[in-house]
Amino acid sequence: MRRGKLISIEGIDGAGKTTLAGALAAALSERGIDVRLLREPGGVQAAEQIRELVKDPDRVIGARAETLLYAAARAQLIEEAIEPLLSSGTWVLLDRFIDSSLAYQGGGRQLGVDQVREINAFATGGLLPDRTLLLYLDPALARTRSRRRTDPPDRLERERDDFHATIARTYEELASGDPERIRRLDASQDERTLLASALRALEDLA
């Protein structure tokens, strides 16, 4: 059986990742592709419990502990859901994956991209997405979008503007260093145009 494809959607908070993920999953399914949409951290019970912990704005969690918690959630998601799905031929669409840790903890928390990459290489067993869609949006506009949400901000969303600006720069550096895997999409486009851009970025995987 042909192995499925792993596709991740990345970007700073407010870029529209979750909206695109849902639309893209529906579009791929309409094209006859067996696809499963999962989120990070989360997707399986143990990882969802870690999600509640790391996003709780009332929790004090150090940068290194935060990094390890995200890596633990990722390891469990891969073992319990991602790897079985890929092995069965299903495409897996992920709302965030390893590049989030590289940008948020490696860049934003200033732990170093290479150090965080090493931790996640162990957690993932070296698994990388076949394609990553990086939604780029001006950090100021993304912050404005985030603040319009009705849900209260989580731990990371409450961080300062310069923290999120650093994350955006780190994402750009990651994209520059791996242009074949990471495809940069303009998240200021309307939803239909952005979806079309995302589908074009995946055409060579089918």
What does this structure look like?
The protein has a five-stranded parallel β-sheet with strand order 2-3-1-4-5, with helices on both faces. The chain is globular, with a radius of gyration of 16 Å. The chain is α/β, with parallel strands linked by helices. The protein has helices at 17-30, 45-55, 63-87, 98-108, 113-124, 139-147, 161-177, 191-201; strands spanning 6-10, 35-39, 91-95, 131-136, 182-186. The mean pLDDT is 95. It is built from eight helices and five strands, in the order βαβααβααβααβα. 39% of the residues are buried. α1 crosses α8 (191-201) and α2 (45-55) packs antiparallel against α3. It has a single domain, classed as 3-Layer(aba) Sandwich (Rossmann fold). The protein is 53% helix and 13% strand.
